[in-house]
């Protein structure tokens, strides 16, 4: 009998090899075994020889394990196997997908129900029933794994279906069928926790660590690994090994009984199982269970495991096993883990609140099986990673057992860029006040520390000169407050690091020149009882810009290394807390995920539990912090939102428009004069809108634009007024079955909001806004449906009630801040419930804050809604270009961010798909989203070309989408369509011809010709753009464009990952007609983040350099109910008008001492960055900035009092804008600006200096 086994599972291959070797020569003569590996998740196409291998021999039986096999290979295998007469036994993977192949004796797939059990009809036939029982037993052999089970599998198959009478009689499958306590070294199973404890001699006095692992060996033969981990943990704690029969359908009730028998619970979980706890690859829900641990209430399928874990209270660490990768492959990989591993071992466990995802075992080559022709590998522990795990388990247990008074904490804040202006920085955070409140609460909870006010903290750090590389404060002015750290063995420890020699080459012999004094490292920080409060060191970019600004793989300075080493070894912290978004530790050199000890973030955190107070609105960078620095993320919410409203001359313009509309009705003769005044007023305000209708639309949009009001303070929820406003803003948007209030009100009156918006009916829209606000006000007053709608149809009332109830939940969540409670729970070493990160208005479920952040399941991206909105954005952009130029844009360069994709669930993906004429078929599935080509007849235009520029964050978070897009690019290029209707295909063909002419191999040329995605090199995240702007280390705009191109020329195709391809990149840029980016965040206008000028600015400058002329830039605002696409000029102008020069926005920020001017000054710098990269910042912007912050004496005084260091930087930026030619101030403005600069500098230096400024 000839048996073929198709599997890519290393453990199964090894077990089959061992089993076949157990058979004697005569038995192997009767049964011939062939094992074929169909390729793993990294396989681009089905292996070229796969079909040949499947058909080379006449097999009598084929056993097919589809687990981890690429879809292309599965489809090929199914196609090949559907013919013939061989028995076919599907045993692993997505059985439902391959069940149709089943053919065993008289049994076929037709005899099974959709659940895989035998049908009633099959039960009535003995031959079918017999074959079904054998099939069930064969799958149990396979799932149980191990050599003995594989011998049983071969014996049953050979004896019953091949007449192999010499084979041994098959034993019963050794298959774990229910969760149990299993001692890995002996395989002994225990019925109760007490029996197990007695067998180990546990006294019950020590803490207990539970280990969750797969008790069946088909996927990973891990018993030896678990046993060794247990041996090491048992040196300081008791261990409870819990074996799971599978990763799916686990009873939490049974698990809870095992963990809590006798009234004592476990202290920590080490979960070695992939996927989410108890539900396997589905990933969307959680394990089942009727009751919670305390017997209260019931649990639904979606949140069971999380609720169960929260009640248990034990943190769940999730180290993992690299079952398809050798240790050497992992060590050499910058990526760290492949997309499939990232999904099942990192992303999905995070949805359960799992932390600390890094590998502790990998494959070890064990030679070959010459008879079967397969390589043999064995899963083996990675000693350095196991040591890391064990030490971190120990420190977590200590955190749980120590009293608060015993604990030493390191609170780390930021000072980027270094100097006096940016101390305690953080996105949307008043960090000084937040740290003050945290200290106060820690003292209340028994921590040994004294309270400090925000003012006292500012005085100690800023006035006291405790800063990184102070510009205005010398070391002798700090009164000896700087902590001095000496480590006689620092050089030796540095040399022992893999990157130590390179660090010495870059920064010189330790201690170096940055933040040192003699042999001492300087630590800017203070010790308050048993709490250290310090500033994360600078990366050395600003201190040594000429050498550092172009170094994208910059290693930490010696002082940076010494800082974290001091916290661990000399200060002796029990935990580290990083305060605010975000620091630089998580962006230091190392793997993208699946860290090793050579990765800087992993090295510096060491064995310390790490907590990170992180902004909920930044999910992509939050996940980098979580995965690369082993952080528990305690989310903090956005500041309150408010409407920008109209002010000053804008309010006057609005009044003039109302007067004009009144005159049209009552006094038409005045209209001509009023129209002239309107145009004059618009011109004076540099308003792009020309007609009254255009002015009304833009003023309406300005007035209702949402702006953050000030900064957030730790633990501070919204007050009633802010929460009511938040409820109104949440209810602006349609959310599937939850309707927007404005939409419902319009519907009642026979209107459609989209038509009112398109028609410019701003008066009607404004009236509907007011009516919606009144509904919210009345509902909050009575908690009942307002009487004003009591006479409306029941269906409409029900929809309004549903919306108001949804909004009210958002209202309550915004008030019910849990940040202090979450931080305290984390510091006690307890499990912190996971919560989605994202935009608070788009996704109100991110509130309340104070929980362990996670990002959307990447498999749910793109959603159908996101694809539809993205398609609308694409068509908006195409239409805008067509109206301007009379033709379609041949190529659109799209900026693809991880943060936008997380927030919107893939609107930019939808935009990219629409350009090519592709859509999603139904919702994103559990495993793979299905895409379909839109027929040309339906599309109504040619398929257009795209070039995608992604961030490193997108690359790390959505590897599945990279693969999807690259496969779509190939499909579109291979469509049999005329050139004039498939421009994408034309670009692919021409590129391939160019590459072949340049000497590329045909296969590689084809792959790169299809490639459209570019980004940073492996392990890199940003560009050098922001460094150049911040340090002023550029003289010509071409340097900026070149810096962007140098950073983004790395291609990501089906076969290439992060390979530099400058010529291909040049080809792609040369074709670009328009640059497009989506603005998806209510918190950030394009003037609020340096990443906007870094990406759409840098990209447009690079294109302009290659083409020799400027390129169109489209910004699509996705924060609105319906996305709007406009020019970069308009988008920048709105950001300036609604925020930077808006008194409401400014006043709210200046309510926060020091931080207000800090935030404002940064945004003025961002405007300069936009001017330099896009050429779309008009001179009036700088005029208005000067008028607002310099010419206005009261505002100038406020800025100086708030933060004179940051204000000095703002004035300097305005001078730089003039010096670089972006603004020509008149003599009065220039003299005022120069004098303000000199006055501020004199004050900062303690004396007035006669510096000569370049004009």
TrEMBL record:
Coiled coil: none annotated. Pfam families: CobN-Mg_chel (PF02514). CDD domains: CobN_like (cd10150). It comes from Paenibacillus barengoltzii G22. This is Cobaltochelatase, CobN subunit. Residues 140-1229 form the CobN/magnesium chelatase domain.
């Amino acid at each position: 009998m000839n048996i073929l086994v198709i599997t890519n599972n290393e453990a199964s291959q090894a077990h089959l090899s061992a089993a076949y070797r157990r058979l004697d020569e005569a038995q192997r003569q009767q049964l011939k075994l062939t094992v074929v590996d169909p390729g793993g998740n990294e396989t681009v196409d089905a292996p070229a020889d796969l079909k040949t291998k499947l058909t080379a021999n006449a097999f009598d039986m084929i056993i097919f394990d589809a687990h981890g096999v690429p879809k292309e290979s599965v489809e090929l295998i199914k196609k090949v196997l559907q013919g013939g007469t061989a028995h076919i036994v599907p045993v692993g993977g997505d059985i439902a997908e391959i069940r149709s192949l089943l053919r065993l004796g008289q049994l076929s797939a037709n005899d099974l129900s959709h659940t895989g059990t035998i049908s009633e009809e099959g039960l009535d036939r003995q031959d079918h029933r017999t074959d079904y029982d054998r099939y069930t037993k064969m799958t149990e052999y396979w799932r149980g794994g191990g050599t003995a089970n594989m011998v049983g599998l071969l014996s049953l198959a050979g004896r019953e279906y091949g007449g192999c009478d010499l084979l041994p009689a098959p034993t019963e499958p050794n298959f774990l069928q229910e969760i149990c306590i299993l001692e890995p070294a002996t395989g002994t199973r225990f019925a109760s926790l007490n029996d197990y404890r007695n067998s180990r001699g546990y006294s019950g006095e020590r803490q207990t660590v539970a280990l969750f692992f797969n008790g069946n060996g088909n996927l990973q033969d891990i018993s030896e690994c678990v046993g060794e981990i247990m041996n090491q943990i048992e040196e300081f704690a008791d261990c409870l090994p819990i074996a799971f029969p599978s990763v799916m359908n686990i009873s939490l009730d049974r698990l809870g009984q095992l963990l809590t028998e006798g009234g004592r619970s476990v202290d920590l979980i080490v979960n070695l199982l992939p996927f989410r706890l108890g539900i396997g690859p589905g990933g969307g829900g959680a394990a089942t269970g009727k009751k919670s641990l305390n017997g209260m209430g019931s649990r639904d399928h979606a949140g069971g495991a999380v609720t169960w874990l929260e009640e248990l209270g034990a943190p769940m660490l999730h180290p993992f096993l690299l079952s398809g990768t050798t240790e050497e492959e992992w060590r050499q990989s910058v990526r760290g883990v492949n997309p499939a591993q990232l999904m099942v071992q990192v992303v999905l466990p995070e949805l359960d609140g799992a932390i600390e995802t890094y590998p502790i075992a990998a494959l070890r080559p064990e030679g070959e099986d010459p008879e079967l022709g397969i390589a043999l590998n064995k899963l083996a522990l990675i000693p350095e990673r196991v040591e890391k795990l064990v030490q971190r388990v120990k420190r977590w247990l200590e955190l749980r057992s120590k009293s608060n008074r015993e604990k030493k904490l390191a609170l780390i804040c930021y000072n980027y860029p270094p100097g006096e202006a940016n101390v305690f920085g953080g996105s949307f955070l008043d960090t000084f006040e937040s740290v003050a409140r945290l200290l106060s609460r820690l003292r209340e909870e028994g921590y040994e520390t004294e309270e400090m006010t925000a003012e006292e903290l500012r005085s100690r750090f800023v006035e006291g000169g405790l800063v990184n590389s102070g510009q205005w404060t010398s070391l002798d002015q700090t009164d000896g407050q700087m902590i001095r750290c000496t480590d006689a063995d620092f050089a030796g420890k540095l040399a022992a690091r893999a990157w130590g020699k390179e660090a010495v080459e870059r920064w010189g012999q330790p201690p170096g020149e940055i933040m040192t004094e003699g042999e001492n490292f300087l630590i800017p920080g203070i010790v308050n009882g048993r709490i250290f409060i310090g500033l994360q060191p600078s990366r050395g970019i600003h201190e040594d810009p000429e050498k550092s600004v172009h170094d994208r793989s910059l290693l930490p300075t010696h002082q940076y290394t010494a800082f974290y080493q001091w916290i661990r070894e000399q200060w002796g912290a029990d935990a580290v807390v990083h305060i605010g978004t975000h620091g630089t530790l998580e962006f230091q050199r190392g793997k993208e995920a699946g860290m090793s000890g050579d990765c800087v973030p992993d090295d510096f955190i060491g064995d310390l539990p790490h907590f990170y107070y992180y902004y909920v609105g930044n999910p992509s960078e939050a996940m980098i912090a979580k995965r690369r620095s082993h952080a528990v993320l305690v989310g903090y919410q956005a500041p309150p939102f408010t409407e920008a409203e109209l002010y000053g001359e804008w309010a006057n313009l609005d009044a003039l428009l109302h007067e004009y509309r009144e005159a049209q009705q009552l006094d038409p003769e005045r209209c001509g004069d009023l129209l002239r005044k309107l145009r004059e007023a618009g011109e004076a305000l540099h308003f792009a809108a020309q007609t009254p209708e255009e002015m009304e639309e833009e003023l309406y949009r300005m007035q209702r634009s949402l702006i953050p009001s000030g900064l957030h303070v730790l633990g501070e929820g919204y007050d009633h007024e802010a929460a009511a406003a938040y409820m109104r803003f949440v209810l602006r948007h349609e959310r599937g079955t939850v309707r927007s209030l404005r939409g419902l009100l319009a519907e009642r009156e026979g209107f459609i909001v989209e038509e009112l918006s398109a028609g410019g009916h701003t008066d009607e829209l404004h009236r509907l806004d007011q009516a919606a606000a009144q509904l919210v006000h009345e509902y909050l007053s009575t908690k009942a449906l307002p009487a004003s709608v009591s006479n409306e149809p029941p269906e409409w009332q029900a929809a309004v009630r549903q919306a108001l109830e949804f909004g009210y939940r958002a209202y309550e969540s915004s008030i019910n801040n849990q940040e202090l409670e979450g931080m305290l729970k984390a510091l006690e070493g307890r499990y912190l419930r996971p919560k989605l990160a994202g935009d608070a208005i788009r996704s109100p479920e991110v509130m309340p804050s104070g929980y362990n952040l996670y990002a959307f399941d990447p498999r749910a991206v793109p959603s159908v809604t996101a694809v539809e909105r993205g398609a609308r954005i694409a068509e908006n952009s195409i239409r805008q270009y067509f109206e301007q130029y009379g033709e379609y844009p041949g190529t659109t360069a799209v900026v693809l961010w991880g943060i936008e994709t997380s927030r919107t669930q893939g609107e930019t993906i939808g935009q990219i798909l629409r350009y090519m004429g592709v859509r999603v078929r139904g919702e994103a599935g559990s495993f793979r989203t299905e895409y379909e080509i839109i027929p040309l007849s339906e599309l109504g235009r040619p398929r257009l070309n795209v070039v995608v520029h992604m961030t490193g964050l997108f690359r790390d978070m959505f590897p599945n989408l990279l693969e999807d897009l690259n496969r779509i690019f190939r499909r579109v290029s291979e469509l049999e369509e005329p050139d004039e209707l498939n421009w994408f295909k034309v670009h692919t063909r021409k590129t391939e011809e160019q590459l072949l002419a340049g000497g590329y191999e045909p296969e590689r040329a084809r792959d790169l010709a299809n490639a459209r995605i570019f980004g940073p090199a492996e392990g890199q995240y940003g560009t050098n753009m922001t460094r150049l702007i911040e340090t002023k280390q550029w003289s010509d705009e071409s340097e900026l464009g070149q810096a962007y191109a140098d950073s983004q020329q790395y291609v990501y195709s089906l076969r290439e990952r992060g390979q530099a391809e400058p010529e291909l990149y040049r080809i792609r840029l040369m074709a670009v007609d328009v640059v497009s980016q989506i603005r998806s965040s209510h918190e950030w206008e394009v003037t609020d983040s340096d990443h906007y000028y870094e990406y759409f600015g840098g990209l447009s400058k690079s294109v302009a350099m290659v083409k020799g002329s400027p390129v169109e830039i489209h910004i699509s605002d996705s924060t609105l109910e319906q996305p709007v696409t406009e020019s970069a000029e308009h988008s920048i102008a709105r950001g300036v008008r609604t925020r930077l020069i808006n008194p409401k926005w400014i006043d709210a920020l200046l309510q926060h001492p020091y931080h207000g001017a800090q935030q404002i000054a940064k945004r003025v710098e961002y405007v300069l960055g936009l001017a330099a990269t896009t050429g779309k910042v008009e001179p009036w912007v700088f005029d208005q900035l000067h008028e607002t912050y310099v010419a206005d004496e009261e505002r100038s005084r406020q800025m100086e009092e708030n933060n004179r260091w940051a204000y000095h930087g703002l004035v300097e930026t305005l001078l730089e804008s003039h010096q670089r030619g972006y603004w020509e101030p008149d003599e009065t403005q220039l003299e005022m600006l120069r004098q303000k600069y000199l006055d501020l500098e004199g004050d900062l230096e303690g004396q007035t200096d006669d510096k000569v400024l370049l004009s």
